[in-house]
Amino acid sequence: MTVTFLGVRHHSPACARLVARTIEELRPAHVLVEGPADLNGRLDELLLGHELPVAVFSHYRDEERAATSWAPLCDYSPEWVALTAGRAAGAEVRFIDLPAWHPAFAGRTNRYADAEARYAEATERLCRRFGVDSVDALWDRMFESAPRSASEPAPGSATGPALESASDPAGDGLAARLDAYFDVVRGDATADEGDQARERYMASWVRAAVAAAGDRPVLVVTGGFHRPALVSLVEADGPEREDVPDREGGWPEVPTPPDGAIGGSFLVPYSFRQLDAFAGYQSGMPSPAYYQRLWEAGPRAAGQDLVRAVVQRLRARNHPVSTAALIAAHSTASGLAALRGHPLPTRLDLLDGLAGALVTDALDEPLPWTRRGPLGAGAHPVVVEMVAACSGDRVGRLHPDTPVPPLVHDVAARLAGLGMDGSVAVSLRLADPADLARSQVLHRLRVLRIPGFVRVSGPAHGADPVFTERWEPAPGAGREAALIEAGSFGASLEEAAAVALGDRARDAGSDVGVLADVLFDAVVCGATRLSAQVLSRLRAGLGRAASPGPLGRVLATALGLWRHDRVYGVARDPLLAAAIDTAVRRVLWLVEGLHGSGAPDPDRLHALVAVRDALLRAEELLSVSREAAAAVFHRIGLDAAAPADLRGAAFGLFQVLTSAAGPDGGGTGAETGTAVSAGASARAIGDPRTLGDWLAGLFSVAREELTGRSGPEPLIDVLDELVRAMTETEFLAGLPSLRQAFAHFPPREREQIAARLIERRGLRGSARSLLRTTADPLLIARAQELEAHVRSTLDTYGLRATS
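Given the sequence above, the corresponding structure tokens read:
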């Protein structure tokens, strides 16, 4: 019996060829592949005859966490070749890794996340040793191009022949070079707990296969990072051999999700764009279209197709590509290949040659193939097209018999029943129940990020008086994959949207801006039929908000919907009621004890306006009584350390709430002997520079305090006296804040104020004409201030002329 361990790089054509040749030569009894062991019973589904690339999409959800993961496969993935070639050779083929939901994969969205990225120090050292810019350039030079000469040093050794000590079933030195490379990458580093758990589990499968194979070979195909550990674990004696229980038949037991958890796996179409390292795929090889052609037809054809694709894309975008430039690019690429020791120009040789001939401007950043990761924002347009040409636009397709989640069938049935096939624009009247049902379906698809429709007009928030919506068809690329992935949220469209909204509320934490979006989306999706999960998470997030301003936006929207909604059918809805109560209590808690100075905060004042409206119009929803809230505002109004605009708003709210407490207008203030007129409070401000801020807060919640003349000392009369008593310097200092305060009044009320001032002076004239000035009042004030400063300076130095 022999065990052959092949350590591979995921999505490497060279490794895929090695796997195919090894299976052909060894004719193993078992082929064990890094992949989710819980999919072993569905390998026939995986091998139905799909058009690759496809991916195994796995999902998991319990009360504490939710996770999703993808395991992509393309024609030149070593794992795919192991599955197909192993089956063809008569071997028993099995996945041997832990299921994707297992805690060992916590934080990873891709099963084949490249360990090299987590152990970059070793790969950087190799790049320096071989004089290349990136890991991908290193990989191409060592493995994807033609075999190297024996004199070229191997990673981790001084001479080439040392490589031959490793097993090499294919006989061309590739397996030996891979073993040496991954030994260096793994080094003496201790893997993290997740990798250790996975490696122990995979080793238990290897030992079981060895026991079942008798004298026949066993082939193990895993990521190269895991190979050294697996070799050691399989050969070791000790407790590691007993830490994974066997099931009937001698094979290790496959873990199952805990009770109450929901999980599963489905196949989804994938694309070359998603596989491309230039698009951000961590474990991807860059330029998948190039490597697909390399896999199919070899390096010469792959290079020719690369150049042809680049030229076609550039010319399609009206970028000139002359024959002379192509000759220059070919010459440069051939020269670079010769200089670098490549029998034929490789991908990097061709890209460097094309860039040298076609990019005539200075580059703002290095060429993207000199490093890993997605393209930067400042990438040159020609470079962008070159990368796109190498990436390709291939999209996989599932076999028609492939099982899909129930959500896919539910969405198809709903759209068909509503007469929406996605081919024409849809205009909806939200007051019409049938159109409202269509709107809710489309919004649920939007929440789940299903391509196909885009809303171009409609209500922007709950109180927006817009009663129509328009949706236009959009490209549906990726729709099937998106629906399959959304199936992890639930079996029906309604359930899936509710769970997705709940996850967004949980992830938002105390980000009230996101929570406001969640609230609105919950309403347009049909809040009365959404789960309590959204409600609990929304309330928790609102209860942790750190500032009153964002809470005001949520409160205003929720209150408007609760009171006035005639469109979405959620008036008096418990979801909105809970959000209103939580937001009011949180705003009151945040503003009491708030100290400091500075300009008025409009967001904070808007939040207090929303609190006022909730206390006056929806008190039955609140756990805070109107009297208790009035007491809070009374304390804030008397707190000299509170910001002036907050004190003014608190005074106004106290007056509004106590006046509304009973027909006598006395309310709480009258009963406790604490009622103070607005005029007396204005006199108490003292500093002309903060008077405008105090008034801004007051006018934001109670403009009638100024326009009304009730009481022994009307506020407008007091303000007139205070302003007339100011010195010119004090007036100029306080004018900006005063002007901002009076901006709360609409034109009609400003005219009433002007008429009162004319009346106080015993004058006759038009109040409207008084409001019309020939210049900006602030500009006039600044000019007067400048003139006063000049006069003062002249007087200081005795330079002003006398008459």
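Strands lie at 3-8, 30-36, 54-61, 66-73, 92-97, 218-223, 262-269, 426-429, 453-457, 468-473. Try to locate this feature in the token string yourself.
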